[in-house]
Each structure stands twice: as structure tokens, then as C-alpha cells.
């Protein structure tokens, strides 16, 4: 692979880049940047979000489910979930338990189970942090549209409406992840843009969780290396 090559995952709201640098892969997360495609050596790409019409996005370089070495992947599964699950499974081997859980906290929070033999074992989907806030604002008359979150409100039961929305959205995601791990008993791998909001909160509640922020992109570049 030539040094300086780029890989791209087109997400629902952001584009995720991997850059082959002299000291190893570097990962960047940006707003959609179709013009950047004209300036890079794109060696491979995948998508779960809208794909622009661009000559660099050749189907011959697209990574799909058939390229991910997990067993039993259904054809409707998002390739980002497959890539994250495969990367965690490879990194965790040999597993000391029956499998693992992978949570990708992005626009949608996806929870994916992978058995110790590398087979897909189902999962769950829920609206992510930002999507919950936008849904509350757009689906009601008086709730405000969210602003960028600087830090999570300290109060568990805030008085301010915006903080109550933020705290409620986070608590719903924490509850989903904690209950899933309680029911399954497998270690949890956490990635995605909202993972920092959740990681410390999960650890404080006794969850067996590992934060691997670039898990999806690590899965993508492993297939291209």
C-alpha cells in the first residue's frame, strides 16, 4: 500500500478518514468533504450514509459485507457494524468468554454481538444522543433545538430544559448498554463520536467496558492492508 493512501467511511452525518502516515494510520472525522476526494489517493471506501456522485468513489474499491470475515452476516446489516465487530473480535482473541458486545455510539447507537467463533449474534439499534435531542425539538412545540454539548450536566435531575434533555438522552443510552451487558454477560467494546460521553459513566456503574474510539476505521484499514 502506498504511503499517504487514504481510506474513507461515509457515515450518516460525518465522513471518517484513515490516512497512512509514516508512523502508522491516523484517523480523522470531518463533515462531508467531497472536494477532498480530488486531493487524495483513495485506496478503499465504505458507506452507510449518502454517497455523492464522484469518480473517485469507484465500486471496485468499495468494501462491503462480503469482504468482512465474520460468519452469518445478514445482507441488511450496516457495514460499519460489521467492521467494528470484526475489529473487536480480532483484537480480543483469544476470547475468555462466549463473545463480545460492540457499541458504536454515533448518529444511531448500534449494539452488535459477536460470538467467540466470529459469528454475528444479533444486536439492537437506538437513536443516538444528538438524534434524540433533534427528535425532541422537532417533534414538539416548546422544546429547544440542541446546541453543541460542552459537558454533561452534573445534576441527575436538571432544572434547565436543555440540560434535562441532554441528561435524559444520555441516561437512556446508558440504560440500554447496561441492561444489554447484564442480560448477555459479555464484555463491551465502545466506539463512536459519543463514546466519551458514555465511557466514564459506564465504568462508574461497574460495566466491563473498553473504549476503542477508532474501531470501525481499524476494521476498514485491516481489510485494505
Walk me through what this model shows.
This protein is α/β, with parallel strands linked by helices. It has two domains: 5-62; 71-215, ATPase, nucleotide binding domain (Nucleotidyltransferase, domain 5), CATH 3.30.420.40. Helix content is 30%, strand content 25%. The protein contains five helices and nine strands; from the N terminus they run ββββαβββααβαβα. The strands form two sheets. The chain has a five-stranded mixed beta sheet with strand order 7-6-5-8-9, with helices on both faces. β2 (15-21) and β3 form a beta hairpin. The longest helix has 24 residues, at 161-184. The mean pLDDT is 93.
Blueprint (SSEs and pairs):
Layout: E1 5-10, E2 15-21, E3 24-30, E4 41-47, H1 79-92, E5 99-105, E6 108-115, E7 120-127, H2 129-138, H3 161-184, E8 188-191, H4 195-204, E9 209-211, H5 215-224
Parallel strand pairs: 1-4, 5-8, 8-9
Antiparallel strand pairs: 1-2, 2-3, 5-6, 6-7
Helix pairs in contact: 1-5, 2-3, 3-4
Provide a compact summary of the structure:
The protein is built from 5 helices and 9 strands, in the order E-E-E-E-H-E-E-E-H-H-E-H-E-H. The chain has 225 residues and is α/β, with parallel strands linked by helices.
- Mean pLDDT across the residues is 93
Radius of gyration: 18 Å
Fourth CATH level, the homologous superfamily of the largest domain: ATPase, nucleotide binding domain
CATH fold topology of the largest domain: Nucleotidyltransferase, domain 5
What level of helicity do the residues show? 25-40%
> What percentage of amino acids are in beta strands?
25-35%
Amino acid at each position: 500500500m502506498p504511503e499517504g493512501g487514504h481510506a474513507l467511511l461515509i457515515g450518516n452525518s460525518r465522513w471518517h478518514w484513515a490516512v497512512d502516515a509514516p508512523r502508522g494510520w491516523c484517523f480523522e472525522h470531518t463533515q462531508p468533504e467531497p472536494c477532498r476526494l480530488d486531493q487524495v489517493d483513495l485506496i478503499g471506501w465504505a458507506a452507510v450514509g449518502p454517497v455523492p456522485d464522484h469518480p473517485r468513489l469507484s465500486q471496485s474499491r468499495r468494501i462491503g459485507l462480503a469482504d468482512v470475515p465474520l460468519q452469518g452476516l445478514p445482507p441488511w446489516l450496516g457495514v460499519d457494524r460489521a467492521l467494528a465487530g470484526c475489529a473487536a473480535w480480532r483484537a480480543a482473541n483469544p476470547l475468555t468468554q462466549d463473545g463480545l458486545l460492540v457499541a458504536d455510539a454515533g448518529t444511531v447507537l448500534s449494539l452488535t454481538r459477536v460470538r467467540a467463533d466470529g459469528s454475528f449474534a444479533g444486536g439492537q439499534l437506538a437513536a443516538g444522543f444528538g438524534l434524540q435531542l433533534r427528535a425532541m425539538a422537532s417533534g414538539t412545540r416548546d422544546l429547544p433545538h440542541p446546541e453543541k454539548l460542552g459537558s454533561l450536566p452534573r445534576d441527575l435531575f436538571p432544572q434547565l430544559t436543555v440540560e434535562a434533555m441532554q441528561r435524559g438522552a444520555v441516561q437512556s443510552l446508558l440504560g440500554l448498554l447496561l441492561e444489554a451487558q447484564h442480560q448477555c454477560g459479555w464484555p463491551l467494546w465502545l466506539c463512536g463520536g459519543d463514546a466519551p460521553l458514555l465511557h466514564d459513566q459506564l465504568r462508574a456503574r461497574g460495566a466491563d467496558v473498553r473504549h476503542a474510539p477508532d474501531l470501525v476505521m481499524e476494521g476498514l484499514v485491516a481489510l485494505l492492508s
